Amino acid sequence: MRRTVAVVGGGCSGVLVTRELLRCGEDDHVVLVEPGEPGGGVAYGNAQPWHLLNSRAGAMSADPDDPDHFVRWSGAAPADFRPRREYGRYLRAVFDEAVAAHPGRVEVRRARATRIVPGAGGGTVVPGAGGGTVVPGAGGGTVVPGAGGGTVVLDDGTRVRADHVVLAVGGPTVARQPFEHPRYIDDPWRPGVLEALPADRPVLLVGTGLTAVDVALTLTADGRRTAPVVAISRRGLLPLTHTVDAAPPAVPDLDDCATLRDVVRTVRAAAGEAADWRPVVDGMRPYLDRLWVALTPQEQGAFLRHLARAWECHRHRMAPEVAARVVALREAGLLEIRRGGVAAWPGLADYAAVVNCAGPGRLPGAAGPLVGALLEEGLVRLGPHDLGLDIDPAGRLVAADGRVHERLWLIGPLRRGAQWETTAVPEIRAQAHRLATDLRPRPALAGVA
Ligand SMILES: Cc1cc2nc3c(=O)[nH]c(=O)nc-3n(C[C@H](O)[C@H](O)[C@H](O)COP(=O)(O)OP(=O)(O)OC[C@H]3O[C@@H](n4cnc5c(N)ncnc54)[C@H](O)[C@@H]3O)c2cc1C
Description:
Number of domains: 3
CATH topology of the largest domain: FAD/NAD(P)-binding domain
Strand order of the largest sheet: 3-2-1-7-14-13
Mean pLDDT: 89
CATH architecture of the largest domain: 3-Layer(bba) Sandwich
Largest sheet: 6 strands, mixed
Bound molecules: flavin-adenine dinucleotide
Structural class: alpha/beta
Strand content: 5-15%
Distance between the termini: 18 Å
Low-confidence stretches: 122-147
Order of helices and strands: EHEHHHEEEEEEEHEHHHHHEEHEEH
CATH superfamily of the largest domain: FAD/NAD(P)-binding domain
């Protein structure tokens, strides 16, 4: 029986899950709802040529069964760090190829979803503006009586009725800063905002992570800047750097660890004994989600307060070329990394602009409009520590009353909290595969009516 799956959001997560749904879903029809180009999104759609991936090409395949897929497509060596913009083109090519290989099974709706109404049954789509008329079955879907999927309401006035809905709308928005400045840039990814700043006045960046590095590279890219870019954060920690050559991961022995304290002690000891700490950090990656869920809520809270920032600096590292550029900028006095509180930063008026590079915020404040509406209606609820939304272990969303939506799924960065590693491509690729597999209709059991 042909079912309709609505995928809301066509960034990396939306593209990868669409591809897996086509591969695994036999005859399923996928409606991708995305206002921009599929494969764009914050990370890859808006990147400039100097923005490189912070993972090696060998880790970035879209295909869980073909780890060298991106390497072959790009012609890179597996250890290379390629431009993020190129990776956006790759995702687009992956999407186009998947669509071409499964004719008639994908429909792209260039619109934004404003609401999801669960339980409205299967089928498809609806032409027409200003409210739209629901025409079950139009566009290739089959109505499954009582199937209880959902209706996705779009901002062009149409609706998509689906048997399953996958939410792939990206992560929380950037953490809001309590700032008064005539030129406060809350979203550094908005095209053109950084290029418009004068090169002869200093710019203050709030945050010293990967976003601040991206912004510093953009502000200095044309070589005309004479005034420094000053990046501040509470601890003043910059991301650490990859080595040029990749070393195989080394898994620390965590079997005897019962508490967060045990884990930290074991990892520090293993990293201290190793010639290089990086393989130890990389070796933990497949175990991080299990470690995270095994922690008590108090331990998770302590990790977030005291260790998460340092962990991120070790785990999400800069490409060597990017790190070399950062060193050169610091030596030239064009980039200063400072430690301090943001609100009381002196001489704010001297800065041409203050740019928010603080990274994702917590929900519900950092929810986009759709997720905000879902939370308000009680259709979803906050996950642990308000880092994302609550899900069951398979990725099905949990409603405010604790019920698990059988056919409403979540993929990508909003899983953070319920899981830990959920933002990078290898994890999203694995989520997409599992989701498509779980979504496959189960064969009827012999003898069961
Ligand atoms: C700057 C940056 C660099 C990164 N570099 C790397 C890296 O080198 N290696 C790595 O492994 N990972 C990297 N990541 C992490 C990871 O790849 C991204 O987080 C990933 O792209 C997440 O994809 P996504 O599709 O879930 O979210 P997004 O890319 O944010 O895409 C979400 C999509 O949903 C759409 N959308 C939002 N709301 C709606 C709505 N209401 N209706 C319809 N559509 C909607 C948006 O238009 C967007 O296209 C990076 C992340 C960032 C931010």
